[in-house]
Amino acid sequence: MLIRHLIANEQDKNKKLYLVNSQLEQIRTTVFRQMMFAEFETFTHEQTEKGIPLTSDDLCSYWHKLNVKYYGPEMTVDPEIDIEWARIPHFYRDFYVYQYATGYAAANSFAERILSDGAKAVEQYKGFLKSGSSDYPVNILRKAGVDMATAKPMQDTMATFSRLLDMLESGV
């Protein structure tokens, strides 16, 4: 909500473009990139569970394929990126990177609801905050009006991304 406010009220075109680009990068790195990380981790876990040993060449090859998949055919994926997986500390911890993307999507949906529904959504958000660890997060979110078992939170995030991209492409 803060970034929306800053973008809407910025009069300097270059500063506004900076803010728009900054938010696009936030979505790219917190949603798209973390989902790519989660897909990489899923692959490594599945191979391990099947008893299939993975070499660094296997991991580099799969990482390359994911970069091509996530960044598209227009992007040049240099061979040097293939080893990037080895320097990402997330992969040396428990599987959790998907939480970045789901957390962002939930927060974005809350912001959308607050901006469109006003006081009712604010009260539901406060209820979410007050809930603490009283139930599973997915249940607490659902009670607050953000159902992570549906595509809506991610659709809201993609709509935000699209709106920001349109702003960037139009030069604000």
Quick structural gist:
With 172 residues, this protein is mainly alpha-helical. The chain has 7 helices and no strands. Helices cover 70% and strands 0% of the residues.
Could you characterize the architecture of this molecule?
With 172 residues, this protein is mainly alpha-helical. It has one domain: Oligoendopeptidase f, C-terminal domain (Neurolysin, domain 3, Orthogonal Bundle). It is 70% helix and 0% strand. It has seven helices and no strands. Helix 4 packs antiparallel against helix 5 and helix 4 packs across helix 7. The chain starts with a helix and ends with a helix. The model has no long low-confidence stretch (mean pLDDT 96).
Proportion of beta-strand residues: under 5%
- Report the average pLDDT across residues: 96
CATH architecture label? Orthogonal Bundle
Distance between the termini: 18 Å
- Count of distinct structural domains: 1
Rg over CA atoms, rounded to whole Å, is 19 Å
SSE order and pairing:
Layout: H1 2-9, H2 13-49, H3 56-71, H4 98-117, H5 119-131, H6 137-143, H7 152-170
Supply the key terms.
172 residues, mainly alpha, Neurolysin, domain 3, 70% helix, 0% strand
